[in-house]
Amino acid sequence: MKIFLVLIFSMILITGCTMSDEEKIDKIFSDYNKPDVPGAAVMVIENGKIIFEKGYGLANVEKNLPVTESTNFRLASVTKQFTAMCILMLIDRGQLKLETTLKEIFPKFPDYGKNITIKNLLQHTSGLIDYEDLIPDTATIQVKDQDVLNLIMQTDSTYFQPGSQHQYSNTGYALLAMTVEKISGKSFRDFLRDNIFQPLGMDNTIAFEKNINEVRNRAYGYTIKDNIVEFTDQSITSAVLGDGGIYSSLNDLYKWDQALYTGKLINKKYLDESWTKGTTNNGIEFPYGYGWRLEKYHDIEVVYHTGSTRGFRNIIYRMPEKKFTIVILTNRDAGSEFSTLKFAQQMVDYYFPVTKFL
Question: Which residues on neighbouring strands pair with residue 294, listed in sequence order?
């Protein structure tokens, strides 16, 4: 009888702790968990199972549509891991090399492209001029990846010698998307669909192009100023696909996360390279692989990427050796690009004691 009571008491304690953890996560997203504001979709995966999944707030404020696990958010720079995957697929198939240069891919590219490799683009060591600074102030039509290539081909220099520094570059990833098109003969949109989304069953994930395809269950972007919700869904650069144009949901990103533990898409050696710190020409290490940022948290290796654009802040935060992942998608301008990184780290702290990672 005593053993039975001890077991019951232990179960009560365990249940109470679990509820407490959920309440703490709810507290993190308390600003999103309101009936009339743009919200967030949050998921935690451990050992292949979804152990927490919840929508907060609204995906569409005007229509009062709530965020759910199937709501599709603009991923912004979380897209870069998909762009990198496309490139690595072409390399895995022998159609491209990390050492291939821009000049080899685009013969009319300025001569400085002879010194910029695919690896430079993947790791943000190209030194390419930020395309955002090249868009005329009078521009009213959204820029696309081809426009980025056209703009950059009019420049005659780089910020620094390729490979000598690590400097984040949206330009590089737009050119990677154009590289996929040039090498594969398919649009970047279709290459993603045929080689990643369809094989993984990510049926509602798309590289969005207005008047060509449609985002189902779409979350729209907003800004909150003085307690007033403003519709701020698109900018002049929102149509560039390679650096940030994919829309996806918790449901589909679960499938993506699980595929990264396998060799279903590419040889595992390329995944390992994707999650390996880069080095400059003079041997200085930097915490970026191929489309993934790298850090240590609780002394555990983490691969992640944030996504920040007008109306959206997101993150995929993975601890591969623990088979533990956090996905946070939000449809509002709130905080810096790394505001969701803070949320993810808080969730790790709340979900598990530090001793679990020792």
Answer: 303
Assigned token pair, 284: 């200085």
**Per-residue pLDDT tens over the stretch 299-325:** 889 999 999 999 999 999 999 999 999
**Which residue, among 158, 135, 161, 159, has the nearest Cα to 148 in the 3D structure?**
135
Closest among 82, 242, 246 to 176, alpha carbons compared? 242
**How much is the pTM?**
0.93
* CA–CA gap between residue 88 and residue 23 (Å, rounded): 41
What stretch of H or E contains 315? strand 312-319
State the DSSP code for 249: -
Instruction: Tell me if 164 sits within 8 A of 210, measured CB to CB.
Output: no
* CA–CA distance, 283 with 51 (Å, rounded to integer): 41
Q: What angle do CA 132, 189, 318 make, to 5 degrees?
A: 75
Domains of the chain in start order, with CATH, are: 34-357 (3.40.710.10)
Pairing relationship of beta strands 332-333 and 222-225 according to DSSP bridges: parallel
Position 183, amino acid: I
**DSSP structure class, residue 209:** -
Length of the chain: 358
H-run or E-run covering 25: helix 2-28
- Cα separation, 278 vs 283, whole angstroms: 9
For residue 160, give the nearest of 114, 129, 188, 181 by alpha carbon.
129
Residue found by looking up tokens 């995929």 in the block: 316
The DSSP output letter for 218 is B
Do the beta carbons of residue 113 and residue 179 sit within 8 Å? no
Q: Express each pLDDT in 7-40 by its tens digit.
A: 443 443 334 444 567 788 899 999 999 889 999 9
DSSP 3-state of 213: coil
What Cα–Cα distance (Å) separates residue 217 from each residue in 123, 147, 194? 33, 29, 21
Three-class SS of residue 235? coil
CB under 8 A, 24+ apart: contacts of 54-62 = 54/25, 54/26, 56/29, 56/32, 57/32, 57/33, 59/217, 59/218, 59/219, 59/220, 59/331, 60/218, 60/219, 60/220, 61/36, 61/37, 61/220, 61/222, 61/229, 61/231, 62/220, 62/231
Tokens of 64: 């009062």
CA 320 → CA 130, 246, 257, distances in Å? 32, 23, 10
